[in-house]
Amino acid sequence: MTSWLRTYGSVPLCLLLFCLVVAVCTQHSSASDSVCWSPSITSCKECLRRGPQCAWCFKEDFLDGAVASQRCDLPVKLLRRGCEPEFMEQSEVKVEVNATTSSTQVSPQDISVTLRPGSQASVVVAVKQLKRYPVDLYYLVDVSASMQENLDHLKTVGVALSLRMTEHSSDLQLGFGSFVDKPVSPYINVHPSKISNPCSDYEIRCRPAHGFHHVLGMTGNISEFTRVIKRQRISGNMDTPEGGLDALLQAAVCQRDLGWRPEAKRLLLLMTDQPSHLALDSRVAGIVTPNDGLCHLENNVYTGSTRQDHPSVGQLSDKLLENHMYLIFAVEKQQYKWYEALVHLLPGSYLGKLGLFQAPNLIELVVDAYKKLLSEVSVSVSVEDKAVSRYWVSVSPLCPNGSTAKDQSCSGVQPDQTVYFNITIGMHSCPDNGEDEDVKVVVRPVGYNESTVVRIHSKCACSCGSTRRCNDESQSPCRETQGSTNQEQRPQNGLIQNSDRDSNWNCRADGSDMDCSGRGVCDCGRCLCDETRLGTVYGKYCERDDFSCPYEGGLICGGRGVCVSGECVCEDGWTGDSCGCPVSTATCQSANGLICSGQGSCVCGKCVCDDPRQTGDFCERCPACQSTCQSYWKCVDCHLSHGLTQKEAGHCNSTCESLVGYRDDVLGQAGEKWIQCMYISNDSCRYRFQTSSQSGQTQLHISTRAECASNSRLVGTFLCVCALTVLCGMVVVAVSRLLLQKRNLTPGGAAEVTVYHCTGKDLSYIPTSNEKTVTYRRESPPDRPVEMHIQDSKMPRGDPWQY
Q1: For residue 535, which of 14, 426, 546, 563 is within the disulfide window of CB 3.0 to 4.6 Å?
Q2: 703 touches 689 (CB < 8 A)
Q3: pLDDT band at residue 13, thresholds of 50, 70 and 90?
Q4: In the beta sheet, which residues pair with residue 551?
Q5: Rounded distance between C-alpha atoms, residue 782 and residue 768, angstroms
Q6: Other CB atoms within 10 Å distance of the CB of residue 656
Q7: How far apart, in whole angstroms, are the C-alpha atoms of residue 596 and residue 604?
Q8: For residue 619, which of 652, 588, 649, 657 has the smallest C-alpha distance?
Q9: How confident is the model at residue 780 (pLDDT cuts 50, 70, 90)?
Q10: Coiled coil: present as a keyword of the record (predicted)?
């Protein structure tokens, strides 16, 4: 670090940071421009895998001689290079809704979507809550020995629950089943005497242990439900956990055996005082076969209990969703924590904590769970297992109150309200074989007997129009010919070389002695042009490129077009050799809405004035035009001679080229666009007029008010000025005189006169023919000024000079 500072310490830090920012921005810009293009792309499939924004041009003569990778780019760039939209193979996303199927709760029920790798599509699924549903409630009860007292409380539940549920359901049916655990060691005692009666040690007659026993199918006969409950006996097992999950899966998938109604809300209530076994627990009993998730009931008894493992939590969750089940756990408070963790993994499940399994508590639990489960609406989205790794799904619900829930569900939904789910499905990649495939995605609202099926058709192959030829390297006719004839022509190497030499002439332009203009190689009679960092070289003979165009601002074609054959093909809205001129004239439009104020034309986004004297961005100013007043004098004089009336104005059409109007006062319209002028007529009257050329045509406004003056008024004005001038002069002289006299006075009030005598002077300098008085004054000292008066009178020449 120290050496770095020593080396670059003299470089300003801001300059280094600026260079770093420029480098990063340049790299980002280049990356965004080449998101589709890559030199490694050789086929249409590879191109479309770059992203949904990429396209492949399969036009046969597109960029003759260019490498295959140049056919892959953004559609807008391919279009500028001469590839029409009908020759582009690009990602397409289609969403079609089958409106023929109708439903009351979930809509739509059938949607078709077409995707390509990297693309995504969104569909909206509406789930509506109805007012009253028929309800099927199945009691799945743990009948191990510890549940004896709890089983007795169920005998009075049926009638009371039926009466309570009439407030929420139009039709209630009840069913009943029991479970203990897998009837194998070490879960039960396998001694022959214990198998038939696990409670023989206590001299109690118990029923044998079982994985699941379906006792009573769905029925509205509450008396029958009560009678069946009274006949139930307990059983027994060895370990603490029970086989609850095993029994739950069978109760969910054996719909026909249990009598689940398709139109009803299905509630599955599990009652137990112990935790449940999970998947892989059966290995201690030697059971290693995974649970297949199918129904295995024979004579209402689960026959797969001793052959299959317990289901996993994920498997149970899927089966509950597929069969539209709401799951309610009624457990004692000692096991609440264990089942609390399980509920979070099972959509549409509810956990109730009971101190005692008494009838009132069970009834409240069922009613509260039913209202809570129905008021919470959520969906589960499943993708076929074969394609689950190639797709992604996101769910965004819109609740009736207008909020967007973060946990993919809406709570507090009331009857007749609708929840909308925005389902976005995206495609990562194609199958390994690269072929098209059809995948089914199922959107299941939890607890509803209706669902939405999204049928996805993935497009991985390229159709490339009616010819089915993509013109990529995988379909090169030369490669196919060489591949099929290599074995046949191997002995004739000399002939092959001669044939190749002859085919090279197809790679030379007329008059050229170089293959492919020296910018490519000849392969099978066709030029494969070189790749360069400057741009793309293409053409039949590699004679064209996309970098020999004018630059502007350091960018080829100003960054507003592409270079094709040495000429810029500009983007929409731009023109010019380097795409530097906007097509729009908006930049030349002045405030009055005219182009260049009507005084010029818009050239390359800037105003060019018709009159060289006009200036400004919009030719709105003309300082030199102020001297043009004299050019309108003839026109004004013509209108004055005809009395400034509209009837006679037509006589001056030949004299005036401008549009003339009359105004009482032209000063009221003064402004930057009006030039104020004046004309003096023969009768010495002045007429004001103004001219303007802002609207594209010269306008002339003449004031009808003449400013005239009479001769007598002029003479009077002259005499007054003269009299005032004389009066002012006299006043100035008098004031000056008074000031001089005041300064000549001494402090005592009298003037002091001093006489000087002069002798020995040259008499030739003494004047003899006149008389003069000369006064000299000394200002200092200021408090005593001194004046000297010399009086020169006429005297004979021979007389002496005296003061």
Answers
A1: 546
A2: yes
A3: very low
A4: 556
A5: 37
A6: 17
A7: 13
A8: 588
A9: low
A10: no
Cis ω on the peptide bond leading into residue 186 (within 30° of 0)?
yes
Q: Estimate to the nearest angstrom the gap between the alpha carbon of 478 and the chain centroid.
A: 46
Q: Distance between CA atoms of 430 and 48, rounded to whole angstroms?
A: 11
pTM: 0.54
* Cβ-contact 533, 527 below 8 angstroms: no
Rounded Cα distance between 771 and 792, Å, is: 5
Q: What residues contact 720, with CB distance under 8 A and at least 6 apart?
A: none
In contact, 346 and 313? CB cutoff 8 Å = yes
Answer yes or no: are the C-beta atoms of 146 and 274 closer than 8 Å: yes
- Strand order across the 325-332 sheet: 297-298, 301-302, 213-219, 169-179, 133-142, 265-272, 325-332, 349-354
Q: What is the DSSP letter of 540?
A: T
Q: What do you get for the CA distance between the two ends of the chain, in Å?
A: 107
Tokens representing 264 are 């009803």
Distance in angstroms (rounded) separating the CA atoms of residues 602 and 587: 8
Residue 540 class from Cβ within 10 Å (0-12 exposed, 13-18 middle, 19+ buried)? middle
State the CB neighbour count (10 A cutoff) for residue 775: 10
Q: What is the mean pLDDT of residues 305-333?
A: 93
pLDDT of residue 250: 97
Cα(269)–Cα(330) distance, integer angstroms: 7
Confidence class for position 465, pLDDT limits 50, 70, 90: confident
The percent of residues in the chain predicted with pLDDT above 70, rounded, is 79
**What's the chain's Rg over C-alpha atoms?**
56
**Angle at alpha carbon of residue 218, lines to 212 and 223, rounded to 5°:** 105
Closest listed residue to residue 541, CA positions, set 519, 516, 518 = 516
Q: Which residues lie below 8 Å from residue 633, measured CB to CB, with a gap of 6+? A: 679
Q: How far apart are CA 212 and CA 301, in angstroms?
A: 6
Work out whether strand 133-142 and strand 265-272 pair parallel, antiparallel, or are unpaired: parallel
Residue carrying the six token digits 């001297």: 627
Q: Is the pLDDT at 364 greater than 80, yes or no?
A: yes
C-alpha 670/C-alpha 11 separation (Å) is: 59
Other CB atoms within 10 A of residue 570 CB: 22
The CA distance from 51 to 624, in Å, is: 62
What H or E segment, with its residue span, contains residue 393? strand 391-398
For 49-85, the pLDDT digits (tens) are 787 788 999 888 887 767 778 888 899 888 888 889 9
For every residue of 53-122, DSSP letters joined together read T-EEE--TTTTTT--GGGGEE-HHHHHHTT--GGGEEE---EEEE-TT---SSEE--EEEEEE-TT-EEE
Length of the chain measured in residues: 803
Angle at 772 between CA 767 and CA 778, to 5 degrees: 115
Q: What are phi and psi of 497, to 5 degrees?
A: -65, -40
> Whole-angstrom Cα distance, residue 480 to residue 477?
5
Amino acid making up residue 763 = L
The DSSP secondary-structure symbol of 474 reads G
- Can you tell me whether residue 522 is helix, strand or coil? strand
Give the Cα separation of 63 and 490 in Å (integer). Answer: 34
Q: How far apart are CA 292 and CA 315, in angstroms?
A: 9
Q: What is the mean pLDDT of the chain?
A: 79
Residue 136 to residue 156: CA distance in whole angstroms = 18
* Residue 785 or 157, more confident: 157
- What is the DSSP-derived secondary structure letter of residue 414? P
Question: Which tens digits make up the pLDDT trace of 573-627?
Answer: 888 888 989 988 888 988 777 888 877 889 988 899 888 878 888 887 776 665 5
Cα–Cα distance for residue pair 511/508, rounded to 1 Å: 8
| Cα–Cα distance list, 520 to 64, 482, 537 (Å) | 12, 21, 9
